[in-house]
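Dear support,

Our group has been running a series of protein-ligand predictions, and this particular one with guanosine-5'-triphosphate is the one our PI (initials K.S.) wants archived with full inputs and outputs. We had some confusion internally about which version of the output was final, so please treat the block below as the authoritative record. The input we submitted was:
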Amino acid sequence: MAGFFKKIFSFGKKEVVEERVDETAPLPPIKWEALDALKPAAEQVVPEFLKRDEPQPEAETTPTVEPEVIPAPEPAPVEEPVPEPAPSIPAEPEIQPEPAPVEEPQPVEPEVPAPEVPAKEPTPEEVPAAPAAPEPVPAPEPEEIPGPERPEVVPQPEKQPEPAPVEVPAPPVEAPPARPEPEIPPAEIRAPIRQPPPVETQPVLAEIAPEPQAAPTPHPPLDGEGRREAAGWGDSTGASHPHPRAALGTSPIEGEIKPAPEAPPVDIPAPIRQPSPVESQPVIAEIAPEPQAIPQPAPKPVPAPGKVTVTKKVEQKAEPQKAPEPAPRRSWFQRMKDGLARSSKELTGNIAGVFTKRKLDEETLQDLEDVLIRADLGMETALRVTDALAASRYGKDVSDTEVRAIMAAEVEKVLTHVAMPLELDLSHKPHVILVVGVNGTGKTTTIGKLAAKLTDGGLSVMLAAGDTFRAAAIEQLKIWGERTKSPVIASKIGADAAGLAYDAFEKAREAGSDVLIIDTAGRLQNKTELMAELEKIVRVLGKLDPEAPHTVLQTVDATTGQNALNQVEIFRNVAGVNGLVMTKLDGTARGGILVAIAAKHKLPVYFIGVGEQVDDLEPFSASEFARAIAGVA
Ligand SMILES: Nc1nc2c(ncn2[C@@H]2O[C@H](COP(=O)(O)OP(=O)(O)OP(=O)(O)O)[C@@H](O)[C@H]2O)c(=O)[nH]1
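Confirmed final output from the archive:
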């Protein structure tokens, strides 16, 4: 068979050049009888395909497909010149028998001969015969051939035509486009596609169809947008489509969609919004079937993979995850221990470094003293620890565990005297608590935490925004007042703090409040002004109650280290501080400063803060603090 075809092709090529001139002439009537007689010449008919390219009538008949096929095989046999195609013309009768061969072999070759025969020979007259032949063939051949042949044939002619046949390739190329044109309807569909109605889904197919040469491959032309459009349609028609969401879930489609980004789909977005993610999937299913519906139905449903929905699914997953977020609350001791972890870790680590396989001697004791001082525990406490250790373990092997235990015991002894509970003398109405301290040490926050404790204990509390220099401080106190349901007395920014304190005292008394907590500014930058202001507040309050303020609390920021010692010294002298609140013990390695302050000033430490939350303020416990900082369970 291959040899047979080659000959035909060779003829066709040569003739092509000649025939083109003839084709322009009108086509004479076909003589079927004569054609039968000419059967042997069928091979020579080859030249026709060339003519067919130009002749319009052929396009209608199925034979058009055949002529197209011809060009593809042509390349090889250019050598044999067949000047006289005339006899071959009668080949038409052969064309009918061709159907059978065409079906058998997938290769287009068998089909090629049939069309060729009629085309070339009939310079003018015979040419018409070619179109006539196709008419009988139409129904059977087209169905079988179309699916497989189209994709194969089209690409071949274009690629194979290498050098000489340059002329030939041109015609075949033209032939293929002619076919799609009849299908043009799809192009028309695009316009409707932009419109939301479900009918638009068809247009999408049309777009896909053209590419179909890629037909074997899924949906190259579809874009993410295209899918959306489809999705919109799918929603409306989704019911009719059998494609389950599961099918759509496949990811493969996505890859296809990406490659073909087309402008038209952009319009589609509107419909997409309407459908929910789930709906979009059905749309995809619709798109796939359409292209297949024409040639290949079931197999392509795979397009469901186009699941642009994948992104939507992801979103759905994210939503549910957000819901569950309960936070278990740790015990106070655990929180304090965690808060002091940095201080403890550094301290115990250094101690372990000193006592690694060493006997306790003067050098070792000196090293330990240095470690304790660097931990801000203070000279006094450091000496207490080393003295206690030397008294019981000098000259002996000592482990870091034993050292930490002794240290915890000595620290506790120092703190025990300052670890006192805050006592309120409610014989005074109100009991006035003046809160002082450097800016940012936690005055306002501590006031809020304390107010919460007092109100939770059934006491009525009133708050006074004595820091009149900062609007933020006033607003912050108001927030705490709302949280604790405590009235807040405030004034304009820059107002006299002493005057505000006086007014607040009167109002608290009038209201019968149990406790009045007064916030103050902490501008150490201008010590003179600060001292004057605090002294004035104390003096004014004394006018209403000689013993007021009854409690002067100073907040000390543990992160300030040794500076805290000086701060306490200043405020104690200016405002008569009689109690401390150590704040921010969480997140600092300098918690030991609390021990140094206690040892030096011997002021009561009422509370410690280990966080910003309302319940992160707890009464100070010497034992707990000592064990926590020494790393003793
Ligand atoms: N981590 C931690 N932060 C705290 C603690 N106490 C207060 N803070 C934070 O420290 C910052 C300052 O707290 P404030 O209460 O505004 O301090 P202040 O002394 O009133 O500051 P001024 O209003 O500027 O005078 C805020 O962000 C508080 O949330 C604590 O115990 N631990």
